[in-house]
Amino acid sequence: MSSKLRDIILNTHVPLVLRDFPNHWECFQDSLQEWCARYDKASNDSSLPVFEAISIADGATPQWERKRSRVRMTMQQFLEKYATKGVGKEAPTEWAAYQYKRANELPPSCLTGIDFKCFGFAEHQNDYSLWLGSACANTPCHYDTYGVNIVVQAFGCKSWLLFPPETPLQCTRIPYEESSVYCLENFYAPAPHNLRHYEQFQAQAHHCLLQPGDVLIVPRHWWHYVEAAETSLSVNYWVPLKADMDLTLDELLVKHIVESFVKGESDEVKQYLLNPNQLDEIAPSASTLFDQFERAVQQQSSASGRKLWTSDYLSQSKVQQLLDNVEERLCTVDVMSKEAYSQLLESNSKRCDGSSEQQVLNSRLELLINSMCSARCIATIKGEFYRRLGHSET
Q: Its function (predicted)?
């Protein structure tokens, strides 16, 4: 079964859901409350987890990480403030999340039994991430530069809105995050006067609600907007692909361009241009960036010892045959009906409070940065580099 699943995961061109998949990971056999209690027991006052928090009502731009506040609290405090419902309790006016946490950032007791070999990927090397958040916690719409994404829903329910790579969303590299390409569309709180703009994406909008035990397969470069429908916890693993090695060069070029604009700027501009996780990194020098670029050119066939998988080696007819021969709980994610899509947008638009983010960067400068970082521009630069490299070596 695992080898069939692996072949399907590597080759599907549409998102898939495995309903109620029996992975039996030990750390999730109890309740979310008990998982959080194990975390707190293994933690101490000096290493309390840092949560992101932001108001549920928001303005016309996506809820970028730069707009969120940071607060330290125990897992139990998080549950009491954001997840507990009951008589006399007021509904939260903000959401909080502890998300995109790599396995090495969490206590081992909270990870016991997690293993992606049940999907055919025994060589995952514990390179996976956990996502915990209260209702409305969301990730702005984006696509991942690398890998096929396997998402396991452990607790709670999450809404996934997905679009194929060719969907004409407005790409942006601001805020810059290595290996993530965002779009400017705000699916969390679209402005009511702008809903007609979003209607053009309906025919390509795939949607599913992941329940505990469900597994979602997100194909390479599919756009996705993710929102917690209730307090939830999920785990994801990006399967590394050989086809992504060439994109390492693209991402290094983008990084070089963004860093050139960040250099010497105020903290306010840096916080606008860079995602918070990028701010923590020491800005590399031009020579260091070039060294990284040259290593990528020379090492197209390797990635620091990680096993790289080949995708698209099976025809879609063969993939369909595999789908037909696995258990019925595996199904494709459907395109939303026009009515359901409109209802989702209209409901989310009620969160838009009409406020606008403070202007930090000149709008034309922002257009310039995005133009220079566009896939078309990067491909031209890379093509010219290889053309000149070929001439220099003949």
A: May play a role in cellular stress response.
